[in-house]
Amino acid sequence: MSPASRTPYNTVGPKDDRPSPGGLDGAVGPGWGWTAFSTPWATGRPAPKYRWTLFATAAHAVDDLRRCLDDGAVSRRGALCASVLRKRGAPRELVLCDGADWACVVHEVRPGVHLTDAGDAYFDRWRATMAGHRFTIVNAGVPTVW
C-alpha cells in the first residue's frame, strides 16, 4: 500500500534545514509520525505526502506539523491550520482537516511498522468512520480537528 521510497511527489517537510525536535532515525516504529492527504474525500485513494521522520512523542509530531503548516508546506491556509493546532489541548492522535483540500493525520507508529503504512492505515480507518460527517467537515469554513 505504501511507497517503498521517498520521491519529491510523496514528501513533505519544513522549508528550512533545521532538525526537528524529537526527530528519530529510521522509518520503522516505535514512534509518532504525521502524513498529509490531499483531497481526502475524493473517490478512490487520496494522494499522501509523508513526513519521512519518526518522532519520539505525539507532541513532537504535532509541533513539526505546525512548523510545516506555518511554512506553507501543506495547505494554502497553513497558518490558519497551525493556529487551530496551537489552540488544541494535549497532543495525541488527531486529524486536522482543511475542508475538502487537506487532511493531516498525527498517528502512532507501532514497533516494527513502517511510518507510511501506519499513516495510511490510520487515515483509512478515520475516513471510514467519519464518512457520515464528510459534509460537516467540508462545509465548516475553517480548519477542524477530529
Keywords:
single chain, 146 residues, five-stranded antiparallel β-sheet, 4 helices, 7 strands
Give the helices and strands, then pairings.
Blueprint: E1 23-24, E2 31-38, E3 47-50, E4 54-55, H1 58-71, H2 78-87, E5 94-98, E6 102-109, H3 115-129, H4 134-138, E7 144-145
Antiparallel strand pairs: 1-4, 2-3, 2-6, 5-6, 5-7
Protein described:
The protein is α+β, with helices and mostly antiparallel strands and 146 residues long. 30% of the residues lie in helices and 21% in strands. The strands form two sheets. It has a five-stranded antiparallel sheet with strand order 3-2-6-5-7, sandwiched between helices. It has a two-stranded antiparallel sheet with strand order 1-4. Helix 1 runs antiparallel to helix 2 (78-87). It is globular and about 40 Å long. It starts with 22 loop residues before the first strand and ends with a strand. The model has no long low-confidence stretch (mean pLDDT 87).
What is the structure about, briefly put?
The chain has 4 helices and 7 strands; from the N terminus they run E-E-E-E-H-H-E-E-H-H-E.
Shape: globular
Biggest sheet, strands in spatial order? 3-2-6-5-7
Q: How would you characterize the largest beta sheet?
A: 5 strands, antiparallel
How would you name the oligomeric state of the polypeptide chains in this document?
single chain
